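It is worth pausing here to work through a concrete case rather than discussing structure prediction in the abstract. The textbook approach is simple: state the sequence, then state the predicted structure, then interpret. We follow exactly that order.
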Amino acid sequence: MGFARLFLLICFMMACTVGYSQSHNASAYEHLASGELQREHILNLTGGETSGRATGSRGAYVAKQYIEERFEEYGIASRGILYYQPFRENSVTGYNVIGEVRASERSNEYVIVGAHYDHLGTIKGKTYPGADDNASGVAALLELGRMFAQMKKDGKRLSKNILFVAFDGKEMSMAGSRNFLKSSKIHPENIACMINIDQIGSTLAPPGKDTSYLLVLGRDKIAEWAAKQIDMCNKMANIGLDIDYTFYNSEAFSEIFYKLSDHHSFAQAGIPALFFTSGITDHTYKESDTEDKISYPVLTKRIKLLFHFIYHLVN
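Step two, the predicted structure:
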Protein backbone atom coordinates (compact mmCIF):
# COMPACT_ATOMS: atom_id res chain seq x y z
CA MET A 1 0.00 0.00 0.00
CA GLY A 2 1.39 3.41 -1.03
CA PHE A 3 1.96 6.16 1.52
CA ALA A 4 -0.83 8.36 0.09
CA ARG A 5 -3.41 5.57 0.29
CA LEU A 6 -2.26 4.63 3.80
CA PHE A 7 -2.54 8.27 4.91
CA LEU A 8 -6.09 8.53 3.52
CA LEU A 9 -7.08 5.29 5.24
CA ILE A 10 -5.73 6.54 8.58
CA CYS A 11 -7.61 9.85 8.18
CA PHE A 12 -10.82 7.98 7.39
CA MET A 13 -10.42 5.71 10.42
CA MET A 14 -9.73 8.71 12.66
CA ALA A 15 -12.85 10.48 11.36
CA CYS A 16 -14.95 7.39 12.02
CA THR A 17 -13.48 7.06 15.51
CA VAL A 18 -14.28 10.70 16.33
CA GLY A 19 -17.77 10.30 14.88
CA TYR A 20 -18.39 7.17 16.90
CA SER A 21 -17.07 8.80 20.06
CA GLN A 22 -19.35 11.82 19.62
CA SER A 23 -22.37 9.64 18.86
CA HIS A 24 -21.58 7.54 21.93
CA ASN A 25 -21.45 10.66 24.12
CA ALA A 26 -24.80 11.85 22.78
CA SER A 27 -26.36 8.40 23.16
CA ALA A 28 -26.20 8.78 26.94
CA TYR A 29 -28.95 11.41 26.60
CA GLU A 30 -31.12 10.12 23.77
CA HIS A 31 -33.24 8.12 26.25
CA LEU A 32 -34.61 11.46 27.49
CA ALA A 33 -36.78 11.71 24.36
CA SER A 34 -40.21 10.81 25.72
CA GLY A 35 -43.33 9.96 23.74
CA GLU A 36 -45.37 10.70 26.85
CA LEU A 37 -44.00 14.25 27.07
CA GLN A 38 -44.41 14.77 23.32
CA ARG A 39 -48.07 13.86 23.64
CA GLU A 40 -48.46 16.19 26.60
CA HIS A 41 -47.02 19.07 24.57
CA ILE A 42 -49.22 18.38 21.55
CA LEU A 43 -52.38 18.05 23.66
CA ASN A 44 -51.64 21.36 25.38
CA LEU A 45 -50.93 23.10 22.07
CA THR A 46 -54.09 21.77 20.42
CA GLY A 47 -56.43 22.06 23.44
CA GLY A 48 -59.57 24.14 23.49
CA GLU A 49 -57.93 27.26 24.90
CA THR A 50 -55.51 27.55 21.97
CA SER A 51 -58.32 27.60 19.36
CA GLY A 52 -55.99 26.84 16.47
CA ARG A 53 -53.22 29.29 17.49
CA ALA A 54 -53.79 31.97 14.84
CA THR A 55 -51.22 34.77 15.09
CA GLY A 56 -52.56 37.64 17.17
CA SER A 57 -55.29 35.54 18.80
CA ARG A 58 -55.81 34.69 22.45
CA GLY A 59 -55.11 31.05 21.54
CA ALA A 60 -51.68 31.90 20.16
CA TYR A 61 -50.91 33.80 23.35
CA VAL A 62 -51.85 30.73 25.43
CA ALA A 63 -49.48 28.62 23.28
CA LYS A 64 -46.74 31.23 23.67
CA GLN A 65 -47.05 31.11 27.45
CA TYR A 66 -46.95 27.31 27.45
CA ILE A 67 -43.69 27.29 25.47
CA GLU A 68 -42.14 29.94 27.73
CA GLU A 69 -43.05 27.93 30.83
CA ARG A 70 -41.47 24.78 29.43
CA PHE A 71 -38.27 26.67 28.52
CA GLU A 72 -38.03 27.95 32.07
CA GLU A 73 -38.88 24.55 33.58
CA TYR A 74 -36.20 22.79 31.53
CA GLY A 75 -33.47 25.29 32.35
CA ILE A 76 -33.31 26.78 28.86
CA ALA A 77 -32.10 30.36 29.31
CA SER A 78 -33.91 33.42 28.01
CA ARG A 79 -32.05 35.65 25.59
CA GLY A 80 -32.15 38.82 27.61
CA ILE A 81 -34.80 39.50 30.24
CA LEU A 82 -37.74 37.95 28.37
CA TYR A 83 -38.26 34.78 26.37
CA TYR A 84 -40.41 36.43 23.73
CA GLN A 85 -39.66 38.73 20.80
CA PRO A 86 -42.68 40.75 19.63
CA PHE A 87 -43.17 41.84 16.05
CA ARG A 88 -45.84 43.66 14.08
CA GLU A 89 -47.14 42.49 10.72
CA ASN A 90 -50.25 43.80 8.91
CA SER A 91 -51.57 45.40 12.12
CA VAL A 92 -51.24 42.09 13.97
CA THR A 93 -48.83 41.55 16.86
CA GLY A 94 -47.02 38.21 16.95
CA TYR A 95 -44.48 36.76 19.36
CA ASN A 96 -41.48 34.57 18.65
CA VAL A 97 -40.40 32.60 21.72
CA ILE A 98 -36.61 32.25 22.06
CA GLY A 99 -34.60 30.09 24.43
CA GLU A 100 -30.85 29.53 24.53
CA VAL A 101 -28.45 26.82 25.63
CA ARG A 102 -25.18 28.68 25.69
CA ALA A 103 -21.81 27.31 24.64
CA SER A 104 -19.51 26.03 27.38
CA GLU A 105 -17.07 28.83 26.62
CA ARG A 106 -17.82 32.27 25.18
CA SER A 107 -18.71 31.93 21.51
CA ASN A 108 -20.30 34.10 18.83
CA GLU A 109 -21.31 31.04 16.77
CA TYR A 110 -24.88 29.74 16.73
CA VAL A 111 -26.97 26.81 15.61
CA ILE A 112 -30.63 27.77 15.39
CA VAL A 113 -33.35 25.17 15.83
CA GLY A 114 -36.80 26.44 14.88
CA ALA A 115 -40.42 25.32 14.68
CA HIS A 116 -43.47 27.51 14.13
CA TYR A 117 -46.24 27.29 16.70
CA ASP A 118 -48.96 29.29 14.94
CA HIS A 119 -51.68 27.74 12.81
CA LEU A 120 -54.93 28.74 11.09
CA GLY A 121 -57.05 29.42 14.17
CA THR A 122 -60.85 29.32 14.01
CA ILE A 123 -62.49 30.20 10.69
CA LYS A 124 -66.27 30.43 10.27
CA GLY A 125 -66.80 28.48 13.47
CA LYS A 126 -64.39 25.69 12.50
CA THR A 127 -61.23 25.23 14.58
CA TYR A 128 -58.07 23.90 12.94
CA PRO A 129 -56.03 22.25 15.72
CA GLY A 130 -52.80 21.77 13.75
CA ALA A 131 -51.50 18.78 15.71
CA ASP A 132 -49.04 17.71 13.04
CA ASP A 133 -48.80 21.22 11.59
CA ASN A 134 -47.03 22.22 13.74
CA ALA A 135 -47.61 21.20 17.34
CA SER A 136 -45.49 18.15 16.47
CA GLY A 137 -42.55 20.37 15.51
CA VAL A 138 -42.87 22.41 18.70
CA ALA A 139 -42.97 19.18 20.72
CA ALA A 140 -39.71 18.16 19.03
CA LEU A 141 -38.23 21.61 19.70
CA LEU A 142 -39.09 21.37 23.41
CA GLU A 143 -37.67 17.87 23.66
CA LEU A 144 -34.41 18.90 22.02
CA GLY A 145 -34.15 21.96 24.26
CA ARG A 146 -34.68 19.81 27.34
CA MET A 147 -32.03 17.29 26.24
CA PHE A 148 -29.37 19.90 25.51
CA ALA A 149 -30.16 21.85 28.66
CA GLN A 150 -29.56 18.67 30.65
CA MET A 151 -26.25 18.10 28.86
CA LYS A 152 -25.19 21.66 29.71
CA LYS A 153 -26.25 21.18 33.33
CA ASP A 154 -24.16 18.01 33.49
CA GLY A 155 -21.09 19.90 32.29
CA LYS A 156 -20.89 18.38 28.80
CA ARG A 157 -19.00 20.55 26.34
CA LEU A 158 -20.87 22.55 23.70
CA SER A 159 -18.70 24.68 21.41
CA LYS A 160 -21.56 26.72 19.89
CA ASN A 161 -24.64 28.40 21.26
CA ILE A 162 -27.98 26.76 20.43
CA LEU A 163 -31.03 28.96 20.00
CA PHE A 164 -34.41 27.25 20.20
CA VAL A 165 -36.96 29.46 18.46
CA ALA A 166 -40.71 28.86 18.36
CA PHE A 167 -41.76 31.09 15.47
CA ASP A 168 -45.08 32.86 15.25
CA GLY A 169 -46.49 34.10 11.95
CA LYS A 170 -45.42 31.29 9.66
CA GLU A 171 -48.93 31.29 8.20
CA MET A 172 -48.49 35.03 7.57
CA SER A 173 -45.79 34.63 4.91
CA MET A 174 -43.18 33.59 7.50
CA ALA A 175 -43.45 36.90 9.33
CA GLY A 176 -41.90 35.56 12.54
CA SER A 177 -38.72 34.20 10.99
CA ARG A 178 -38.29 37.30 8.83
CA ASN A 179 -38.62 39.55 11.85
CA PHE A 180 -36.30 37.34 13.90
CA LEU A 181 -33.52 37.91 11.38
CA LYS A 182 -34.13 41.66 11.44
CA SER A 183 -34.15 41.92 15.23
CA SER A 184 -31.83 39.23 16.60
CA LYS A 185 -28.58 41.20 16.07
CA ILE A 186 -26.78 37.97 15.14
CA HIS A 187 -24.69 38.38 12.02
CA PRO A 188 -25.64 35.76 9.38
CA GLU A 189 -22.01 34.66 9.12
CA ASN A 190 -22.15 33.59 12.78
CA ILE A 191 -25.04 31.17 12.20
CA ALA A 192 -23.49 27.83 11.32
CA CYS A 193 -26.82 26.23 10.42
CA MET A 194 -30.55 26.73 10.78
CA ILE A 195 -32.66 23.62 11.37
CA ASN A 196 -36.39 23.97 10.76
CA ILE A 197 -38.82 21.36 12.09
CA ASP A 198 -42.22 21.64 10.46
CA GLN A 199 -44.88 18.91 10.45
CA ILE A 200 -42.82 15.99 11.70
CA GLY A 201 -45.26 13.73 13.58
CA SER A 202 -47.02 11.78 10.83
CA THR A 203 -46.34 8.42 9.19
CA LEU A 204 -49.20 8.80 6.70
CA ALA A 205 -47.25 9.86 3.61
CA PRO A 206 -44.07 7.78 3.33
CA PRO A 207 -41.96 8.20 0.17
CA GLY A 208 -41.55 4.39 0.07
CA LYS A 209 -42.91 1.41 1.97
CA ASP A 210 -41.16 2.17 5.27
CA THR A 211 -43.25 4.32 7.62
CA SER A 212 -40.16 5.00 9.80
CA TYR A 213 -39.09 7.74 7.43
CA LEU A 214 -37.98 11.37 7.40
CA LEU A 215 -37.82 13.93 4.61
CA VAL A 216 -34.82 16.29 4.69
CA LEU A 217 -34.59 19.18 2.24
CA GLY A 218 -31.65 21.51 1.74
CA ARG A 219 -28.87 18.95 2.14
CA ASP A 220 -27.15 20.44 -0.90
CA LYS A 221 -27.11 23.87 0.76
CA ILE A 222 -24.89 22.96 3.73
CA ALA A 223 -21.25 21.93 3.95
CA GLU A 224 -20.55 18.43 2.66
CA TRP A 225 -19.15 17.23 6.00
CA ALA A 226 -22.32 18.35 7.79
CA ALA A 227 -24.57 16.75 5.20
CA LYS A 228 -22.80 13.42 5.68
CA GLN A 229 -23.40 13.66 9.44
CA ILE A 230 -27.13 13.02 8.99
CA ASP A 231 -26.57 9.58 7.49
CA MET A 232 -23.73 8.84 9.90
CA CYS A 233 -25.89 9.71 12.93
CA ASN A 234 -28.72 7.56 11.63
CA LYS A 235 -26.33 4.62 11.26
CA MET A 236 -24.02 5.10 14.27
CA ALA A 237 -26.88 5.66 16.71
CA ASN A 238 -28.83 2.76 15.20
CA ILE A 239 -31.93 4.91 14.72
CA GLY A 240 -33.09 3.16 11.57
CA LEU A 241 -34.94 5.93 9.73
CA ASP A 242 -35.47 5.82 5.98
CA ILE A 243 -34.17 9.29 5.07
CA ASP A 244 -35.33 10.84 1.81
CA TYR A 245 -33.50 13.94 0.56
CA THR A 246 -36.05 14.80 -2.11
CA PHE A 247 -39.72 15.56 -1.91
CA TYR A 248 -41.05 12.29 -3.33
CA ASN A 249 -38.38 12.17 -6.05
CA SER A 250 -39.51 15.45 -7.58
CA GLU A 251 -36.70 17.97 -7.95
CA ALA A 252 -39.12 20.70 -9.03
CA PHE A 253 -41.51 20.14 -6.12
CA SER A 254 -38.56 19.87 -3.72
CA GLU A 255 -37.49 23.38 -4.73
CA ILE A 256 -41.04 24.71 -4.32
CA PHE A 257 -41.63 23.01 -0.96
CA TYR A 258 -38.27 24.22 0.35
CA LYS A 259 -39.56 27.80 0.02
CA LEU A 260 -42.71 27.24 2.08
CA SER A 261 -41.49 27.33 5.68
CA ASP A 262 -39.36 29.38 8.03
CA HIS A 263 -35.96 28.02 7.03
CA HIS A 264 -36.38 29.84 3.72
CA SER A 265 -36.07 33.22 5.47
CA PHE A 266 -32.62 32.10 6.60
CA ALA A 267 -31.66 30.62 3.23
CA GLN A 268 -32.49 33.95 1.60
CA ALA A 269 -30.01 35.59 4.00
CA GLY A 270 -27.29 33.19 2.84
CA ILE A 271 -27.48 30.98 5.95
CA PRO A 272 -27.22 27.18 5.51
CA ALA A 273 -30.70 25.88 6.30
CA LEU A 274 -32.25 22.42 6.53
CA PHE A 275 -35.91 21.46 6.53
CA PHE A 276 -36.99 18.34 8.46
CA THR A 277 -40.55 17.12 7.84
CA SER A 278 -42.76 14.07 7.47
CA GLY A 279 -44.58 15.71 4.57
CA ILE A 280 -48.07 16.83 3.65
CA THR A 281 -50.93 14.45 4.45
CA ASP A 282 -54.67 14.30 3.73
CA HIS A 283 -55.21 16.07 7.07
CA THR A 284 -52.96 19.08 6.47
CA TYR A 285 -54.86 22.38 6.94
CA LYS A 286 -58.00 20.48 7.92
CA GLU A 287 -60.03 20.09 11.10
CA SER A 288 -58.92 16.45 11.14
CA ASP A 289 -55.28 17.35 11.92
CA THR A 290 -55.71 16.10 15.47
CA GLU A 291 -53.44 14.50 18.08
CA ASP A 292 -54.53 10.93 17.24
CA LYS A 293 -52.77 11.26 13.86
CA ILE A 294 -49.34 11.47 15.52
CA SER A 295 -47.06 8.41 15.59
CA TYR A 296 -45.05 8.85 18.77
CA PRO A 297 -42.61 5.94 18.26
CA VAL A 298 -41.50 7.40 14.91
CA LEU A 299 -41.56 11.00 16.17
CA THR A 300 -39.22 9.88 18.95
CA LYS A 301 -36.84 8.36 16.37
CA ARG A 302 -36.84 11.61 14.43
CA ILE A 303 -36.10 13.62 17.57
CA LYS A 304 -33.19 11.30 18.40
CA LEU A 305 -31.72 11.77 14.92
CA LEU A 306 -32.02 15.55 15.23
CA PHE A 307 -30.41 15.41 18.66
CA HIS A 308 -27.37 13.47 17.40
CA PHE A 309 -27.06 15.69 14.31
CA ILE A 310 -27.22 18.94 16.31
CA TYR A 311 -24.73 17.54 18.81
CA HIS A 312 -22.26 17.01 15.97
CA LEU A 313 -22.85 20.55 14.71
CA VAL A 314 -22.05 22.11 18.09
CA ASN A 315 -18.95 19.99 18.85
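Step three, interpretation. The first strand starts at residue 77 and ends at 78. The radius of gyration is 19 Å.
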